[in-house]
Amino acid sequence: MEGQRNPRPLPPALLLLLPVLLQAADHLPTEGRLTNSCIQARRKCQANPSCNATYHYLNSCASSISTSSPAEEPLVPEDCMEAAQQLRNSSLMSCTCHRRMKNQATCLHIYWTIHPARSLDSDLCLKFAMLCTLNDKCDRLRKAYGEACSGSRCQRHTCQRQLRAFFEKASEPHSQGLLLCPCAPTDQGCGQRRRNTIAPSCALPPEAPNCLELRQVCVSDPLCRSRLADFQTHCHPMDILGTCATEQSRCLRAYMGLIGTALTPNFVSNINASVALSCTCRGSGNLQEECERLEESFSHNPCLMEAISAKMRFHSQLFSQDWAASTFSVMERQNKNPALRPQPWVPTLFSCTLTLILLSSLW
Known about the structure:
- By secondary structure, the protein is mostly helical.
- The longest helix has 19 residues, at 302-320.
- Helix 14 runs antiparallel to helix 15 (248-257).
- The termini are far apart.
- It contains 19 helices and two strands.
- A two-stranded antiparallel ribbon has the order 1-2.
């Protein structure tokens, strides 16, 4: 119409971020709109006799967990974990609570009842293991390699094949959470659980071979050769500060892609996050320097070290802010839809977006 001004078009950067902004806005706890609050989910559960009985059993689990000795590592009893598994398809498992909501105390009680390990264990590797257990696909894939890599049944090639299947098929939030969970230096139980994620007693050779011999085994296999080339491309350090040749996320994917191959890396101890190949450079003769370069491309790679450290800091923040469940959902949606991923060239807009997403899950 004449006299009516046409609206100005949105900037291209904002158009790209609009789906994320709208998604975040949809989850904000505005009046009269609480997405799947735990109180609503509990009412649905009460209408189902099986769900209701399981919830009551989990409620009784809380007292058995809280009586653990402070000197011992708090653990969730196996029967309580099984009860939680029975509820994983229930809306209770993804329910949320929000600050300033009505009956907030009741909502929080319901939340902690169905997530008994989250509030009591400081071991983040155990928490990520619980999240995997409560996800059908992650649990199935993890059990498959757990059985193939068990001491009594260990066949290295079968174990490695199942490990590759886990890291290829499980969602990144679950697989990276299990492998790259942060541990306090004093928490050796957590560090040992992290080292054991890839079942090293079966997946790795019992005696460390020469690294160059191990590389030769790798390059003779088309899959391992391509995974190694991927690692060398995306985890190539540009400087001593840890700048990667490409994005840190691509380096982590390339690193995890080697798990289950002849060049499977792992954490070297229970007290830090250093990684290395399970090999040695002894006996390398005049190829000693070449061997050390290969070994140090894992053990002294600033790009890889910073990528791992950054991911561990992110995982630590997930639980310190207690927004793991909703963040996993957002991360999975972003992995499936590239349009929802933040763009590196619009940091100011992304900060606002991240703040909105965080606010949606804080109580």
